[in-house]
Amino acid sequence: MFDALYVGATGMRGQQLQIDTIAHNIANLNTTGFRRGVLSFSEITAAAAESAAATEASPSRLRGAGVLASVVASSVPGELKQTSELMNVGIDGLGFMEVVRADGTLAYTRAGNLTVNADGLLAAEGGVPLSARIQVPSDAREINIGPDGRVSILAGDDQDRIEIGQIELAAFPNPSALTAAGGSLYSASAEAGQPQVAVPGELGLGTLRQGFIEGSNIQLTDELVTLLLAQRAFELNSRVIQAADQMLSITNGLYR
Fold first, then answer.
1. pLDDT digit string (tens) for 124-149?
2. pTM here?
3. Are 197 and 106 in contact (CB under 8 A)?
């Protein structure tokens, strides 16, 4: 019965995290390039309660100790929406654009609403420059970004395009393990693996589509259904705790 109390508590904590994650997902429904958080549940084994003499057939080896919940990012891409803005770039396929944060660390994003920051560098949302460090001349009047990531401009009165840089994409063996870093940015982790950087269209990476932008991959109906299931699961776990508490009360009464 004591086990039931702890197991029920882990279930309630897991479902509370599920509800918090759903709330965060819905709040970012219109966030460019946002990847929905998905809860991953795994069983907590009762290894600590087993003795060295326990056999494989022992019930103690078959009994779990609750559930462990963790949040991972969905790897499903969002819908590409046409904006016709030259500074908007959508990734059609796999991959992330690599940026350099103010502290010098690398981050990754699929939010393609590009800008030219105060240093004249091609940058992602928030002025975070791309790792390619593409310098855009102040007299540039039109920027073109090809499907292969080549960046060219028309500058001044010149009618010939000038190539000024190359946007590359990074792919991870396990993109779901990337850590959210805020502002549509994600940080690499040991679980995500080493990034593989290449030109768009190579090594299975997607291509770039100028004039498009990727929305979030949130499906509102899915979130609402998951919310209902999480509420019901929370209620059931709370009833387990109530039942265990009532049984403990009856047991205590037998000794009086």
1. 988 999 999 999 998 888 899 999 99
2. 0.79
3. no
d(C-alpha 192, C-alpha 177), whole Å: 5
Residue 245 three-state SS? helix
Same domain, 200 and 162: yes
Claim to verify: residue 85 and residue 194 sit in the same structural domain: yes
In this structure, what token pair is assigned to residue 63?
């009994």
Residue 172 contacts residue 201 (beta carbons within 8 Å): no
C-alpha closest to that of 93 among 106, 105, 77: 77
86 and 11 belong to one structural domain: no
Tally of helices (H runs) and strands (E runs) in the chain: 3, 17
Local structure of 10: helix, strand or coil: helix
- Domain ranges, residue 180: 80-214
pLDDT digits (tens, 9 = 90+) for 70-104: 888 888 889 999 998 999 999 999 999 999 998 99
Distance CA 123, CA 121 (A): 6
Task: Name residue, tokens 């549940």.
Answer: 41
The 8-class DSSP code of residue 169 comes to: E
